[in-house]
Design goal:
heterodimer, A: mainly beta, six-stranded mixed beta sheet, five-stranded antiparallel beta sheet, 11 strands, about 60% strand, B: four-stranded antiparallel beta sheet, globular
């Protein structure tokens, strides 16, 4: 089955800097790539996604890039703020209801 | 908006015990999921249900049973609790479109003594 690898287990940045979280996947059939954020006490919630028919998507300070050739996708958080501190999960899905998650990246934004 | 309610929030069981986790959603979503999250790890799919009366195994279904009692509720049973099953179990729901946002509950933390 699909295997999603999240390269950074922890990431520390200064407030205002950019943060980049990188993921790779194995199955070329994967076509949907969502990102989720997990904050203590708040549960897991969706932040942004990208489909395989595009290679870039932006939503405010979040940018997702997809390189299908390299089977790689990444989340860029620009102008980071303390409230961006959380665990971020990348995921991949093959147009069915099975979503494969990476192991998560703990992002710490230092003031 | 809607909410996913998982009960209980914390569950302590004994090794070998049969334990049931419950989940209710008021999004009116057709599809519901059970995931397991181990410390420092991602989520692994245990069971999912595309519609009421449907039940499908995920990648980690051995040792678990699930039941979709009605559209709004989905329960998970640990058939025989094991020491290495200390984890957080997350219930989720979504519309049937597979390429769409999934909404998660806050989880049930299971500890086996």
């Amino acid at each position: 089955g699909e295997k999603v690898e999240q390269h950074e287990s922890t990431l520390s940045v200064r407030e205002g800097d950019s943060a980049v979280i990188n993921c790779t996947y194995t199955d070329t059939a994967s076509s949907y790539f969502p990102w989720y954020k997990q904050e203590a006490g708040k549960g897991l919630h969706f932040v942004i996604d990208i489909r395989s028919n595009v290679d870039r998507k932006q939503s405010q300070r979040l940018i997702v890039l997809l390189d299908k050739k390299a089977k790689r996708f990444s989340l860029h958080i620009t102008a980071t703020q303390p409230e961006d501190s959380a665990i971020y999960f990348c995921a991949a899905s093959m147009n069915n209801n099975r979503i494969f998650f990476g192991d998560g990246t703990q992002l710490v934004v230092k003031p | 908006g809607g909410i996913i309610t998982q009960t209980p929030k914390f569950l302590i069981g004994q090794e070998g015990q049969k334990l049931t986790l419950k989940c209710q959603q008021n999004f009116n979503h057709d599809t519901m999921y059970w995931y397991r999250q181990d410390s420092g790890k991602g989520l692994r799919l245990i069971y999912y249900s595309i519609t009421e009366n449907d039940l499908q195994k995920g990648d980690l279904s051995e040792g678990y049973d699930a039941s979709r009692e009605k559209k709004s509720s989905f329960s998970l049973t640990v058939t025989s609790a094991q020491k290495n099953e200390m984890a957080v179990f997350l219930c989720a729901s979504s519309i049937p479109d597979p390429n769409t946002e999934v909404f998660f509950g806050k989880g049930t933390r299971l500890t086996v003594v």
